[in-house]
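Example for tutorial group B:
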């Protein structure tokens, strides 16, 4: 089964995450199917970016987002609807 989850990047004490589609059996930082965004918890403004089209595509194919990624997707959809 595919999961949409975070892949840790960055240095020690300054984490930076990429939002990736990866098989659930693989380790956290293993080889990914696709990178669809990023999240930087240290930033104050605009601390994430995600390609909603690709996220929705993978969810339609059966990929399960993690709790954190689910909240990022929710925020991105809210921000996209406020732009219009």
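The residue assignment follows.
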């Amino acid at each position: 089964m595919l999961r949409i989850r975070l892949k840790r990047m960055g240095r020690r004490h300054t984490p930076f995450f990429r939002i990736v589609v990866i098989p659930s059996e693989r380790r956290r930082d293993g080889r990914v199917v696709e990178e669809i965004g990023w999240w930087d918890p240290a930033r104050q403004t605009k601390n994430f970016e995600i390609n909603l089209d690709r996220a929705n595509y993978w969810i339609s194919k059966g990929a399960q987002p993690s709790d954190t990624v689910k909240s990022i997707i929710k925020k991105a959809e809210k921000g996209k609807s406020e732009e219009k």
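The beta strands are 2-11, 14-23, 34-39, 48-50, 64-65. Compare this with the pattern of hydrophobic and polar residues in the output above.
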